[in-house]
Design goal:
Elements lengths: L1 H4 L3 H14 L22 E7 L4 E7 L22 H16 L4 E9 L2 E12 L8 E7 L5
Length: about 150
Amino acid sequence: DLNADLIHPVLRQLYAYWEEKRAGRIGPARAEIDPVDFRYAIGWTALVDVVGEGGSFNVRVWGGHMTVFTPNDYTGRQNLKFNDGEIGASVLENFRWVVAQPRPLTILRDRTTAMGHYRYESMALPLSEDGEKVTQLLVTAIPPVGG
């Protein structure tokens, strides 16, 4: 049970919501989730479109609190790339993993790169319009409990 591995209560609550909405499928459709239902997490959450088979990603919405980790608002960004190429490569690799598996992924990151230090717990949840392939990702990243 992935929820047992999650540390942050916001992630646990969002995962339980997603689990209920997916109803045994690989993920709910975008229309089945309502941001009002998870307003407690909305600032820490991004909605990312999967392009093709997951070769690239377009960002629909980038939560405003996520600028804690990156000074950029990636909302509307096509073919997502991060300014910090080292951390960005691993984030994109994680997104591709979720598309390929397809199942949720959670990560506790505490890493220093040439561009800075990153410390957060994150979760990528698959969304699926047809119940067969991942078409979007609901991605949440939040500082870990206790800082």
